[in-house]
Structure to design on (153 residues):
């Protein structure tokens, strides 16, 4: 694997971040590996970290009303999950499962808070990029939801 800082520099959530701020982030993250079939996090769990996929594939799984699990997304290198965990203190909205051997970089809420104190500008860049990501996700979801809604007339 390339150096953690080099990997982070290619991630969307760090776009626009100064090199010295990226070095601060690098000090606050750690690398974790998952084998195919491992659970990264479970829907409903209280957890406080987000992950950046470096290698492999993670499936995002949501429990449906009929109690069956549905894969709602596949994450690959460059994708992230758990952004809301840095912002709110709510339970996980979905599960993440390694569908193949995977490597992720983990940023905890505690690490993010340390970054916020050390480099407020870096934290601001991450939050703005999270806002853009979540906004895009919400737009896609609302477009998909509209397909299932009844017309007004």
């Amino acid at each position: 694997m390339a150096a953690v800082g080099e990997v982070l520099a290619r991630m969307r959530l760090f776009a626009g971040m100064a090199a010295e701020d990226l070095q601060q982030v690098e000090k606050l993250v750690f690398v974790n590996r998952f084998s195919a079939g491992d659970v990264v996090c479970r829907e409903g769990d209280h957890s406080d970290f987000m992950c950046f996929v470096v290698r492999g594939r993670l499936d995002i799984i949501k429990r449906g009303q009929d109690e069956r699990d549905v894969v709602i997304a596949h994450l690959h290198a460059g994708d992230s999950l758990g952004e809301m965990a840095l912002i709110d203190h709510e339970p996980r909205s979905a599960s993440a499962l390694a569908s193949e051997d995977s490597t992720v970089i983990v940023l905890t809420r505690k690490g993010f808070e340390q970054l916020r104190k050390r480099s407020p500008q870096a934290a601001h860049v991450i939050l703005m990029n999270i806002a853009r990501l979540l906004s895009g996700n919400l737009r896609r979801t609302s477009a998909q939801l509209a397909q299932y809604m009844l017309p007004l007339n």
Q: What stands out?
A: Helices lie at 4-9, 19-26, 83-87, 109-118, 120-146. The two ends are 56 Å apart (CA to CA). The CA atoms of residues 71 and 91 lie 18 Å apart. The chain has a mean pLDDT of 92.
